[in-house]
Structures are given as C-alpha cells and as structure tokens.
TrEMBL record:
Similarity-based family: Belongs to the GTP cyclohydrolase I family. QueF type 1 subfamily.
Native source species: Nitrosomonas marina
Xref: Gene3D superfamilies: 3.30.1130.10
Lineage: Bacteria, Pseudomonadati, Pseudomonadota, Betaproteobacteria, Nitrosomonadales
Protein's name in the database: NADPH-dependent 7-cyano-7-deazaguanine reductase
Superkingdom of source: Bacteria
Length: 139
C-alpha cells in the first residue's frame, strides 16, 4: 500500500495540558506551484506552537504538507491557509508558522503568520535554550 497526500490532519491528546510548552518543527521540503508561471516553489516551513488540549500527529502533518505539491498558491495565501487549518484542528494556545521560500527572480520571500487563543496569556519569557535550525549538512 502506498502512502498518498491528504488534507486530513490528525491529532492526539496533549499529555501535559497543565503546562505551557513549545513544540518546534522544521519542514524543509515544502513545495507548491506558482499560480502565475506554473513553476514549482520550494520553502522551509518552521512551525512553533504551544498546545492546549491537542497535539498534531506527525505523519498526518507530513501527508498534509505533501498535498500542496501540485497546488497553485501565492506564498501569502498558502502560509495563512496552512495556519488556519492547523488552528482549526488544534485550537492551540499559540501558534506561529514561518514560510521561507527559496529565491525566485532574485527575491527571497518570508511569510510569517501567527494566532493566539482568546483569553490565553503567555507566561513571562525565560530563555534557557535556543533551537538552532537543523540542516541536512552540518557547518
């Protein structure tokens, strides 16, 4: 049985509902199609969220991201659509999606969108560790 792209996002219960904690994901193989030229657009997506009652299941996220491979979309539209879909299934306390598109016509495009749950107040910032971006090659 082969795996196929899907718009179905699955979740599982947050194992630590009482605690604010950050989930950080890097998705370096996002692809969609330019609606003007039909050429592929490539991006690295960085997803950070503070879950409430649900967490995203990784395989479903992978298949969801894969489902955009042949879809025509402007960078701004696709970034916000993905964020809205994630907000819809997760209802997180906070979520941010950053899409860093590769150069096209000499221009790099970065689109950053976020959402904060109504009534949720973030805890004071304490910086202990920074998640460096991962790469398939080490510097």
């Amino acid at each position: 049985m082969s795996t196929k792209p899907s718009k179905q996002l699955e979740t599982f219960p947050n194992p630590f509902v009482k605690r604010d904690y950050q989930i950080h994901m890097e998705i370096p193989e996002f692809t969609c199609v330019c609606p003007k030229t039909g050429q592929p657009d490539f991006a690295t997506l960085t997803l950070d969220y503070i879950p409430d009652k649900k967490c995203i299941e990784l395989k479903s996220l992978k298949l969801y991201i894969w489902s955009y491979r042949d879809e025509a979309a402007f960078h701004e539209a696709v970034t916000n659509r993905i964020l809205e879909d994630l907000v819809g299934v997760l209802k997180p306390r906070y979520i941010r999606l950053a899409a860093r598109f590769f150069v096209r016509g000499g221009i790099f495009t970065n689109v950053i969108a976020d959402h904060q749950k109504s009534g949720w107040t973030p805890q004071p910032l304490i910086t202990l560790h920074h998640c460096d971006e991962q790469s398939s090659t080490r510097k």
